[in-house]
Amino acid sequence: MRYESPDTIEAAAKLLASESDARVLAGGTDLLVQIRAEVLSPSLVVDIKRIAETRTVKEENGGYRIGAAVPGAELKEHPALKKTWPGVIEAANLIGSTQVQGRASLGGNLCNGSPAADSVPAMIAAGAVASIVGPNGRRELPVEDIMLAPRKLALQKGEIIASFTLPKRPPHSGDAYLRFIPRTEMDIAVVGCGVSLTLDGSGTCTAARVGLGAVAARPLLVEDAGKALVGTKVDEAALDKMVTAVRAACKPIDDKRGTIEFRIDVAGVLAKRTALIALERARKA
Amino acid sequence: MKHHVTTTVNGDEVEFLCETEQTLLECLREELELTGTKEGCGSGDCGACSVLLDGRLVCSCLVLGVEATGKRIETIEGMAQGDTLHPLQRKFLEHAALQCGICTPGVLVAAKSLLEKNPDPSETEVRYWLAGNLCRCTGYDKIIRAVMDAAAEMRGA
């Protein structure tokens, strides 16, 4: 196994494209486990952490650009980012232990290709867009369009997610992420839900997005759930409509962590709780 | 292909040779003979191999040795000053916060990192911070009490 740590994203993309089984190394909290378990045995590992863009958080166009390899622990220590996008930050910091948060990144969490990845529904709700660099240049893709199925991504050979952009936040906006696990810490989501919404001056919802994890082969943007809230005061009737839309979107599997029936039910309960937290935050923002 | 790695461990500049596959944990133990850092699970679940990498708490089993190039690493060996134990180490002895001791270096490194960020944590904060450090002997209660007591002493000092 070779190791390269280029200084530019273009050089990293070129290296990745040049080898049939090269892998990107960001925080390594999934990749190194899979290499040690011999699930993967890449001939080349490309460490992207010496590339400034992947390791930086900066304000851009009134929003944020977050490096794909910035660890969750660093995101949590960014006061302005945490204040603007608390849901995204709390989701990133539910990934594993303190030690794992010291390394695990948004880019890695997404590209590991698990439908249960905690940060992904929160990024989908937030409207995050991935900035992807490959041998043919740079392109942008919304986070909900990246993962296609377990371990299967919409990235072409040689393509790397360099960073994510989060849009400019209007006043009275809030987001939140909740997951259900049978213990209090250090577990994989049975269901995960992210909600982001914006209110106008009178408290009417003008925009809402709902992201769901672990209830289908890929993380979902549930457009009908967001629509159920827009134009309402996010009252009980609107929330009930959102819950119905969320449950209708679920196509979960039965496994040791939850049955189909349980996951669908919990998705609705979680979506409502998450929306209420986002609503409370939007009212205070 | 062997990598020639130059890094800083507990304030000392060190060099070692390693294969790409070797983790930082293996490099510390086998190449630098710093065997205080323990291997538990080897998959980032147990925290026995906790070290600081550029001041950030990580599992050294989930870091490649070659990634340590130009970084600053702190291990359990840097905790006591000569014969003088760190207050956390002393409190772990006083409270009998260990039995077999395999998890202890990782717990101490993790707890020290918490107290540097937050000198006055609540018990809940200590429990969440240490959730990634598994101990199969103590039931955690004595560990938590030792950390709380050390934090109180360090605040008074």
Number of domains of chain A: 2
- What would the principal axes of the Cα set say about the shape of chain B? globular
The CATH superfamily of the largest domain in chain B is known as: Beta-grasp domain
How confident overall, as mean pLDDT of chain B? Answer: 97
Assembly classification: heterodimer
Look at the structure and give the CATH class of the largest domain in chain B: Alpha Beta
Q: Quickly count the domains of chain B.
A: 2
Uncertain regions spanning at least 5 consecutive residues of chain B: none
Under the CATH scheme, which architecture of the largest domain in chain B would be assigned? Roll
Helix content class of chain A: 25-40%
Largest sheet of chain B, in brief, is:
5 strands, mixed
Secondary-structure map:
The complex is a heterodimer of chains A (285) and B (157).
Chain A: E1 2-4, H1 9-18, E2 22-25, H2 31-36, E3 44-47, E4 57-60, E5 63-67, H3 72-76, H4 79-84, H5 86-92, H6 98-101, H7 106-111, H8 119-126, E6 129-134, E7 137-142, E8 147-149, E9 152-153, E10 160-166, E11 173-180, E12 191-199, E13 205-213, E14 220-221, H9 223-229, H10 236-249, H11 260-284
Parallel strand pairs in A: 1-3, 2-3
Antiparallel strand pairs in A: 4-5, 5-10, 6-7, 6-10, 8-9, 11-12, 12-13, 13-14
Helix pairs in contact in A: 5-8, 9-10, 10-11
Chain B: E1 3-9, E2 12-18, H1 24-31, E3 50-53, E4 56-59, E5 72-74, H2 87-94, H3 104-117, H4 123-129, H5 141-156
Parallel strand pairs in B: 1-5
Antiparallel strand pairs in B: 1-2, 3-4, 3-5
Question: How would you explain this protein's 3D organization?
Answer:
The complex is a heterodimer of chains A (285) and B (157). Chain A contains eleven helices and 14 strands. Chain A is of the alpha+beta class and 285 residues long. Chain A has two domains: 115 residues, 2-Layer Sandwich (Uridine Diphospho-n-acetylenolpyruvylglucosamine Reductase, domain 3); 112 residues, CO dehydrogenase flavoprotein, C-terminal domain (Enolase-like, domain 1, 2-Layer Sandwich). In chain A, helix 2 links the parallel strand 2 and strand 3. Chain A starts with a strand and ends with a helix. The model of chain A has no long low-confidence stretch (mean pLDDT 97). Chain B is built from five helices and five strands. By secondary structure, chain B is an alpha+beta fold. Chain B has two domains: 76 residues, Ubiquitin-like (UB roll) (Roll), CATH 3.10.20.30; 70 residues, DNA polymerase, domain 1. Classes of the chains: A alpha+beta (285), B alpha+beta (157). Chains A and B meet through helix 2 and helix 6 of A and strand 4 of B.
